[in-house]
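Internal ticket #5521
Category: modeling
Description: The requester needs a full-assembly model to guide mutagenesis choices. All entity lines are attached below as received. Residue total reported by intake: 460.
Assigned to: D.W.
Attached entities:
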Amino acid sequence: MKALVLPVLERPEGMTTHDYAFARLRQAIMVGAFRPGTSVTIRGLAEALESSPTPIREALRQLTSIGALDFLENRRIVVPRITPARFEELISLRIVLESHAARRAVAHLSDRQIDRIVAIDEAIEAAILDGQKAAALIANQEFHRQIYMANPDQVAMPLIESVWLQLGPILGIAMEHVTELYVVDRHREAIEALRRRDEDAVAEAIGADIREGIGGFDQQAIGKLLSLAR
Amino acid sequence: MKALVLPVLERPEGMTTHDYAFARLRQAIMVGAFRPGTSVTIRGLAEALESSPTPIREALRQLTSIGALDFLENRRIVVPRITPARFEELISLRIVLESHAARRAVAHLSDRQIDRIVAIDEAIEAAILDGQKAAALIANQEFHRQIYMANPDQVAMPLIESVWLQLGPILGIAMEHVTELYVVDRHREAIEALRRRDEDAVAEAIGADIREGIGGFDQQAIGKLLSLAR
DNA sequence: TTTCCAAAAATGTGATCACAAAATAAGAAT
DNA sequence: ATTCTTATTTTGTGATCACATTTTTGGAAA
């Protein structure tokens, strides 16, 4: 059993142990800190997070509910493996879900909010030019999230994040193999469409952005990686 | 504290207490056994299910992850209330998700599977003519599930069920107020399209089916109910 | 060296308990 | 009768323990 290293995450005062464990594990999986097939144990995580098994168990159970982990028949807890076919399904689901969420957010976005989204996009490009892959990835997620969450009655975000979580472990592999990221200019296209409040164009740009590369990672290259990583 | 009545559910041998509690509560919410705003307690459910609090807590936490329950700030556990706007978002999300899932299932459906789906549709109509609202609802979900699950690499079903769960409590109210159900013939349309393996037509039929009525319940009527039920 | 079997260790499950926070009930003051 | 305060009860949280199952280990047999 090798020592566990989880990306750090600030713990807000008053947050329960369970919520903290959930948030931290969730983030770890989302940014690809675990490889597909990795198995975790309740006691191991309890030790790593300096708590008792109880809240960890609850966090793990929640993570399975959103597809981030798998409780196998043997009672083993693992990070799910992904087949190329499943990968393709996940991407197409992202496209459908996110272009829909984007479309329904357009009418709610203020100019000020769009400015903030532009700032996030600049942060993404800065991270890419700097070669900071993990930072670019997180900023990219933030870019998308800020758009979808502008809709106050929005209900799709949790589902979208579930898909992100299922793609997370793949991103971890991609980050190891992809030497350099490229700037995705579909973001610019999306921003222009947002400014015009053009719902169709926004949906189209978001869809294309996902299709062409998941957050700076070339989609085809990842698909190829997948068939190798067995 | 009034006594809790949960729809019965068979417990397969070897199923853990936690899994059973999760499955049973989930089904109860899905078929509208709980009204929006209802609050539940860990100890109360533990007693009702004759177990200790531990597995119940895990089940409740999982249910919150999929939007079926809400842990409030005050630590109260409630069945979420739904606003008309949220309701509309959920319906439009259903349309997007399910027409996509249906489309991607078409190529995988064998004639034998389609026959089974036809049989389910007949069961729905029988239940409707018989006035068995709950049975019609469950059969209707089964109709949709059988289509989407035909795709072996499918990843959308858990998300779709999450949306169903969020709509569940509304269905409970609808069942109380709607006196009679009507047969939705969009199912026939979907079946015809399935036989022709016409993806566009299938997606269109499923979308229309959802738009016109959620499982036999008129959508507009429910929207009106919502604004009253406060 | 490989295969097989038994002992030991590790691991998930579920019950119980102490504790703190929240909700409710009860009584006093206005 | 109503409002406020205090005491009691309820409830979620997290730690701990016993148990059964699974996995791993270590050595014997082929």
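Resolution: model delivered.
Comment from assignee: The two ends of chain A are 21 Å apart (CA to CA).
Ticket closed.
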